[in-house]
């Protein structure tokens, strides 16, 4: 009993203390009049021991001033809730039962946030995005948004080039979407405009559209490219805009395949190159690397050899065979005269065509021939030259045969008698000229280099063009005086020049335009040295001469009425001047023109083009051309 009493006394002490300071009397009853705790109704009050025996048998020791009261006098405790934020609503988790409200306690226990004085049932939401001001269990009910907040625009995306954009909450309402970029049509540019997470997908290829002669266009690496071409075409410049621009059967820069560069012409996907070009007064001819022959220029008397009587052709046309059914083939060398052309063939024959007023096409040819006529009596020819009215051929044996006009003894047979057969060229002692390795021809004279590296000439010598120190016409070959070690010999209308093994140039004959290159206009019946050195190749026109020197430069001198010297002027030059050619591979001079074959195999010319002899396809003009013009394909 002692322990029980002690426990009860401790409990009642706590209760009494509570009643004295804070009227919390549970489970006792508070006496409002006496302002003290009393036993609740149904309890037994034991006065002597000051114990309140509760209905459940529990006992409480009450202070001396406690006592039994009737139920009518006692209060019934009620629930009170702590109101920490002073908004009149208490925290339901801080309930106490008492007859009167403790300090800072209230009867309403429905506060949802006792640290928020603006949060209580019935309050309006402030749309702040953080607190439940109306205590209904959510945030910002009835608000579109919380003022000041921002978000990605609904339905937006940041995939590819798309941007979701941003909305800002202003007064509880979302603003318009700012900065949004929506789905766009896919283009070929390395971007994902349709925002399907695929850069330049099928839609981009479709956006590329079509291209000329392309069967397929695709998008690759952010750019439209030609994926496939019509048969026979290709995209060789990697420019999709012009599609498959290269016709492989005709494009000289892409012959048969992209990048396959032809020097001259693309013929059915095969390159055709210029093997040997030759320039005459009004005609340019070239032997192809197929051993065919094409010419451009005048067709007077059928000089183009194409089998018809057209006036001229300003682009190359192929010489036909003697039967005119195919192209002439097997051509090894060609020479262009004034109005006729002759070619040496691989079988030892010689064919000529054009004017035949003086028999220059060969015995029995008739007045003229517009297709090749095979010169009778020749079967071992290796070279042929065509003058104004005569022709000569060098035989494999080293002898020379000539035919045509024998005025001034230009056939070299020791007479001036007209011949109906080919004539053998003789020395002045009556013996045949032998050991000949190279021929050259002027208007009415012919020259030859022999195996002894000496030069011999015959025919007209009015200007001293035979080089024997006289101006006496020679119907048989005479040796050019003072020349030795000759490696090349070229003849103009009435003068000739020789290149020796020491890279020096000697010239003789007519010099009215300074074509001998000695700085004067005095005719020279014997060779004089031109003021030039380090020469690798020479060429002669009607009244001018040129040389290719070491380093690839070309220098010219003489008449310049049609810009034929290539220096861009019309000024006659008595000494060599530099011509405006580059990348020179070979020198080609004739008439009033100078041409070069460049290192890429292309032929370029300056000078007169009055009969289309440039072969560039342009309208002929007689003014002359100062800037090099390129010969084009047939």
Automatic annotation (TrEMBL):
Does Transmembrane helix count among this protein's keywords? no
Q: What's a Gene Ontology MF term here? A: guanyl-nucleotide exchange factor activity
Ranges where the RCC1-like domain occurs: 276-580
InterPro entries in the record? Ran_GTPase-activating, RCC1-like_dom, RCC1/BLIP-II, Reg_chr_condens
Entry keyword set: Guanine-nucleotide releasing factor, Repeat
Q: PROSITE patterns attached here?
A: PROKAR_LIPOPROTEIN, RCC1_3
Record SUPFAM superfamilies? RCC1/BLIP-II (SSF50985)
Q: Which GO terms describe its cellular component?
A: cytoplasm
- Which Pfam families does this entry report, sorted A to Z? WD40_RLD (PF25390)
Regions that span the bilayer: none
Name of the protein described by the UniProt record: BNR repeat domain protein
**Origin species:** Sandaracinus amylolyticus
């Amino acid at each position: 009993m002692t322990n029980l009493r002690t426990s009860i006394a401790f409990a009642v002490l706590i209760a009494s203390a509570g009643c004295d300071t804070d009227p919390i009397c549970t489970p006792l009853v508070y006496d409002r009049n006496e302002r003290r705790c009393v036993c609740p109704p149904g309890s037994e009050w034991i006065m002597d021991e000051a114990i309140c025996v509760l209905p459940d048998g529990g006992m409480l020791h009450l202070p001396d001033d406690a006592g039994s009261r009737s139920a009518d006098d006692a209060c019934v405790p009620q629930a009170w809730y702590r109101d920490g934020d002073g908004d009149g609503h208490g925290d339901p988790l801080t309930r106490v039962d008492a007859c009167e409200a403790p300090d800072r306690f209230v009867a309403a226990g429905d506060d949802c946030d006792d640290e928020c004085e603006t949060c209580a049932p019935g309050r309006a939401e402030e749309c702040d995005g953080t607190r439940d001001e109306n205590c209904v269990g959510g945030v910002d009910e009835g608000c579109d948004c919380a003022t000041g907040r921002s978000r990605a625009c609904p339905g937006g995306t940041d995939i590819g080039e798309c941007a979701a954009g941003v909305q800002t909450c202003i007064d509880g309402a979302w603003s318009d979407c700012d900065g949004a970029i929506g789905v766009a049509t896919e283009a070929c540019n390395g971007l994902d405009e349709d925002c399907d997470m695929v850069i330049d997908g099928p839609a981009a290829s479709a956006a590329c559209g079509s291209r000329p002669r392309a069967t397929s266009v695709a998008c690759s690496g952010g750019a439209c490219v030609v994926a496939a071409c019509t048969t026979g075409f290709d995209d060789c410049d990697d420019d999709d805009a012009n599609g498959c621009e290269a016709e492989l059967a005709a494009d000289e820069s892409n012959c048969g395949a992209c990048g396959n560069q032809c020097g001259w012409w693309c013929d059915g996907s095969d390159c055709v190159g210029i093997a040997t070009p030759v320039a005459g007064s009004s005609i340019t001819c070239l032997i192809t690397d197929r051993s065919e022959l094409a010419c451009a220029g005048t067709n007077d008397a059928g000089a183009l050899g194409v089998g018809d009587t057209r006036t001229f052709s300003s682009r190359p046309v192929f010489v036909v065979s003697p039967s005119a059914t195919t192209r002439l083939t097997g051509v090894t060398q060609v020479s262009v005269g004034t109005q006729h052309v002759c070619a040496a063939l691989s079988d030892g024959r010689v064919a000529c065509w054009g004017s035949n007023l003086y028999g220059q096409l060969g015995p029995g040819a008739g007045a003229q021939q517009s297709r090749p006529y095979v010169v009778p009596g020749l079967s071992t020819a290796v070279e042929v030259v065509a003058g104004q009215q005569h022709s000569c051929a060098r035989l494999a044996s080293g002898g020379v045969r000539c035919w045509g006009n024998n005025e001034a003894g230009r056939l070299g047979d020791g007479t001036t008698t007209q011949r109906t057969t080919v004539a053998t060229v003789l020395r002045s002692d009556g013996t045949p000229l032998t050991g000949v390795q190279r021929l050259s021809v002027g208007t009415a004279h012919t020259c030859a280099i022999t195996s002894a590296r000496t030069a011999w000439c015959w025919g007209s010598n009015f200007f001293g063009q035979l080089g024997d120190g006289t101006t006496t016409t020679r119907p048989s070959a005479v040796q050019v005086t003072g020349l030795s070690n000759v490696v090349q010999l070229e003849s103009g209308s009435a003068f000739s020049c020789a290149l020796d093994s020491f890279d020096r140039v000697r010239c003789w004959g007519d010099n009215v335009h300074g074509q001998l290159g000695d700085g004067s206009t005095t005719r020279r019946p014997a060779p004089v040295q031109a003021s030039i050195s380090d020469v690798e190749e020479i060429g002669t026109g009607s009244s001018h001469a040129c040389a290719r020197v070491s380093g690839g430069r070309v220098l010219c001198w003489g008449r310049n009425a049609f810009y034929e010297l290539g220096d861009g002027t019309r000024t006659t030059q008595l000494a060599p001047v530099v011509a405006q050619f580059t990348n020179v591979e070979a020198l080609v001079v004739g008439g009033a023109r100078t041409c070069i074959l460049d290192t890429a195999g292309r032929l370029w010319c300056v000078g007169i083009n009055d009969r289309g002899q440039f072969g560039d396809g342009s309208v002929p003009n007689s003014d002359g051309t100062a800037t090099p013009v390129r010969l084009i394909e047939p």
